[in-house]
Amino acid sequence: MHVPFSHDLRGGGADRLRRSGGASDVDGAKRLASGLPAVVTAEEIGGVALFAAVGEAERERLSRVVADITLVAGEYAAHEGDERALFAVLDGRIEPIKRVDGIERVVGERHPGDIFGEVPIVLGTVFPVGFRAAETSRIIRIEPHDYHAVAAVAPDVVKEIGRLAAHRMSGLRGLQGIAAEPPPPRAIVVGHRWDAASTELRRFLDRNQITTRSLTPDTPDAAERWGGPLPVEEDWPAIRVVNGKTVVRPQLRRVAELLGLGTEPEAAEYDAVIVGAGPAGLAAAVYGASEGLHTIAIEREAPGGQAGTSSRIENYLGFPSGVSGDELASRALQQARRLGAEILVTRSITRIDASTHDVHLDGGDVLAARTIILASGVSWRHLSIDGIDRLAGKGISYGAARGEAWNVHGVPVHIVGAGNSAGQAALFYATHARHVTILTRGEELENTMSRYLIDQLATRPNIDVMFGTEVAAVHGEVSLEAIDVRDRGTNETTRVESGGLFIFVGADAETAWLPSEIALDHHGYVLTGPDIRAEARWKLDRDPYLLETSVPGVFAAGDVRSGPVKRVAAAVGEGSMAIAFVHQYLKDGLPRLNRVRRRRIDVEARPQQIEDEEALPARHLRMST
Ligand SMILES: Cc1cc2nc3c(=O)[nH]c(=O)nc-3n(C[C@H](O)[C@H](O)[C@H](O)COP(=O)(O)OP(=O)(O)OC[C@H]3O[C@@H](n4cnc5c(N)ncnc54)[C@H](O)[C@@H]3O)c2cc1C
């Protein structure tokens, strides 16, 4: 019988798994370490209410095919989204868990004799909630075809399971009630709509998938929604997090700390330190942690990288109707953390020492790394037009985030660029803005944009493309109000109203901070593998591994790597491949463990004011070794 190996632990190792097949007792009956019997009997199956009236022969048959699973507290029988199966509790207690915005909520209990999984079995869907052991529990898992074999000869079972499923779905305490209940926001932000710091804060929260209620001076009942008098305007933006702590004019690092997003490394030394948590970095984190490497990914902004800003990725394998970048990022992040990788946000890697593999973080922490994976991707190229920096965050953005839609509701917006990212953004904003105009210097989209996007753009009546054009100037006092569009053929300039300008004019690898020992191509992308030999930048006898840079033990994956393919799938593939090379490198015996040299951060004065509730210790970051 196949038992899916999805019964992960919340805080323990695989050694805590208990399955059938333990040592034999003196009386010959198989017993597990927990002392629970290992083989399900027909009698035990009869103890499950659903099967109480089923004939002896069917119970015998079930006892021969079901999986007998013992879970320790915190171990999952099924995760939300897992394929359907029917379970019954023999011993212990199982809790259904619903995860909203990354926060778990226990939504019921199952006791001995109860079943779970009836909703997916009846509807043919995946699990709408996860099921986790609240204490050591023994359950059975019945595969759908075995359930159907029983149901074929026991119509009462079908009726009963249908009744149970309907009961679980309906009513305030059922799935319907859970789905209808609005999740409480994890953060409330008050700030001016067009204030750059407020925009940056909202964007950061959005990129980190934090549900946020945004308040502006014109929000009706702002004080009521805030939960008291609003902070004075000089202190905006201000944020109140779910547990009531309030911070005014916060640094993003402080916000991350308040929301429990990791910001401090737990150790001083790692097998693999990953620079960046875009698709390549997250894939490396998943593979590294799952293969037993002590792995940390350090991300300066939010997990997901560029892909996290994509409104719909249509070409990533396994998502037939596409997947939004933030959902892909959120799933990958959960997966990496569940497997034991550390992921830090709001921390940048500022320097790498090629000779020691020391990795320097902003703020002075230094990590000792046996291997390093560069997965720092690319950053948007900026437009050099007068006034554009003054209006950045006030209607002008590089790239796009889904959370910015509320700012462009009902206004005309402009997208600069003709690549897939520009096409995706146009489709997304067209569902909020009055009108979307794509401005491109080129004369066609076919050379730069995928066919499926061009076809979708053509179906939207409120999207236009202006070929052979460029932005000549931007105007606005408090926020963007208009732009000048120049026709490159006639040089004629026209001023048009604009409530949002989203710029997608290509991206560059930001690699100037890397040590000179790491060889780059002419455009600043990191050279790896055979290209290193070709450039005569390799000193060892062995060949460099495919993704290895000119510094042995330092690897590059994803968009930052010199190569023509810049895609989510390629980044994910390279991130996971990099881990295979890390193993190879460590096996070669080349690594040299560094001495522990992590700097400590002293907390001394306060960069931001804490308004109410538990006042936090005054902080000032000062380095000491
Ligand atoms: C809007 C948009 C839509 C897209 N749509 C698609 C699509 O539909 N299909 C597709 O295949 N591809 C798509 N792409 C391309 C795809 O997103 C990229 O190829 C992919 O994200 C590259 O992954 P990466 O991990 O290599 O780099 P990135 O995604 O760029 O991630 C790198 C990460 O490293 C971080 N970082 C950089 N420097 C440091 C540092 N010094 N310290 C700490 N962190 C650092 C960055 O903040 C970033 O989060 C799209 C891109 C964009 C922008």
Describe the structure.
By secondary structure, the chain is an alpha/beta fold. It is about 25% helix and about 25% strand. The strands form 8 sheets. Strands 14, 15, 16, 17, 18, 19 and 30 form a 7-stranded mixed sheet that branches. The protein has a 5-stranded antiparallel sheet with strand order 1-2-9-4-7. The chain is globular. The structure holds flavin-adenine dinucleotide. Flavin-adenine dinucleotide binds near residues 279, 301, 314 and 375.
What keyword list fits this structure?
625 residues, five-stranded antiparallel β-sheet, 33 strands, binds flavin-adenine dinucleotide
Distance between the termini: 56 Å
Q: Helical residue percent?
A: 10-25%
| Outline | globular
Give me the count of strands: 33
Instruction: Say which molecules are bound, naming each kind only once.
Output: flavin-adenine dinucleotide
Most strands sheet: 7 strands, mixed
Helix/strand-derived class?
Answer: alpha/beta
Strand fraction: 15-25%
* Tally of helical segments: 15
Mean pLDDT across all residues, rounded?
85
Low-confidence stretches: 1-38, 591-625
Radius of gyration: 28 Å
SSE inventory with pairings:
Elements: E1 18-19, H1 42-46, H2 56-65, E2 67-71, E3 76-78, E4 86-91, E5 94-100, E6 103-106, E7 115-116, H3 118-123, E8 130-133, E9 137-142, H4 144-153, H5 155-169, H6 175-180, E10 187-190, H7 196-207, E11 212-215, H8 222-226, E12 238-241, E13 246-248, H9 252-258, E14 269-275, H10 279-290, E15 295-298, H11 325-338, E16 342-344, E17 349-352, E18 358-361, E19 366-374, E20 379-380, E21 396-398, E22 412-416, H12 420-429, E23 435-439, H13 451-458, E24 463-466, E25 469-475, E26 482-487, E27 493-497, E28 500-503, E29 507-508, H14 530-534, E30 554-556, H15 568-587, E31 600-603, E32 609-610, E33 621-624
Parallel strand pairs: 10-11, 14-15, 14-19, 15-16, 19-30, 21-28, 22-23, 22-28, 23-24
Antiparallel strand pairs: 1-2, 2-9, 3-8, 4-7, 4-9, 5-6, 5-8, 10-12, 12-13, 13-32, 17-18, 18-19, 20-29, 25-26, 26-27, 31-33
The protein binds flavin-adenine dinucleotide.
Flavin-adenine dinucleotide binds at residues 275-281, 298-301, 305-307, 309-310, 313-315, 348-349, 375-378, 399, 420-421, 424, 510, 558-560, 566-569, 571.
